[in-house]
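input
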Amino acid sequence: MKIKATILAVMMLSAVAAQAADGPEVGVWQHKVDVSLNLLQSNYSDNWNGGDKGSVVWSGVIDANLQKQFSEKVNWRNTLNLAYGQTHSQERDGSGDLYWKRPDKTTDNVEFESLLRWTTSGGWDPFVAVGFKSLFEDLTADPDRPLTLNPLEFTESVGISRQLIAKEGQTLMTRLGVAFSQYSRKYYLNPSPDDGTETSTSNEAAAEMVTEYKVGALDGRVDWASKLTLSLPFDYSGKSVFEDDMVPDGSLPSDIADYTTALDADFENTFTTHVTKAISVVFSVRWVYDKYDNSVKPEVDDAGALINGDLVSQAIRKAGQFKQTMALGFGYSF
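output
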């Protein structure tokens, strides 16, 4: 908790200290699209000395930003992130021959947000936003039976924002508000080969703070993009199931209902170094604290027994999650 409080304090102090600058030019669409492909490949013959195995690691990423200041009082920004990657690797069978395994997923993200702000002379701008998140392939329920575009998360938020820095090569914006999220998740009813699925839906309301910072350095050769999201749910449709409808059997923490309204944090940092116009090195670090994944709503039968116990257990993450990636690849910006 001290770590999260420290992060929040640092971001808020930075916001207070920052000086607002001129915003984007009125009436002009500003756009930026980054497309990148990262690839690492190796292959060996069956008799290669040392027993090495071949592999192919690839990922594709599209980052798009489209923004327009329609007038002195209206700004509309749209952002899109699509990412997918796999690792293909070789294994040896009983006779020592190499064969290619089924690929493992390494990167997966579908995220879109549309933000409309009423820019005022006072600096604090009312906003409304809508967002969508999903995965191209969900392997949570069964790695051998991926579910396409699952789960689905739709979010609507409203509040106030402040553009603290808005100048060429550097932006800093923070916003405070209330976010309403709707989740839809498919899951398998029975083991393979039965592919029958059922869909569970849930809703959440939360207080939310989002701080975004972007800066370029070394004449555009290095870009740093940072985003901190703090969310405190105060209402979740599945909480009552844990509290009132489910009969405890000792398989889950006794206070699991409180997990659903614990503070969530998501801190992303991406550093991009442009070696040449077409080649870049991308270093990404992400830390997520989500004590319970609210897209997984508990389902119980008439007797109060938990139906989707495996998914509920997987949705509990008492410790923070950490992800770090570094890739050298080809990219194009326009």
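quick obs: The two ends are 41 Å apart (CA to CA).
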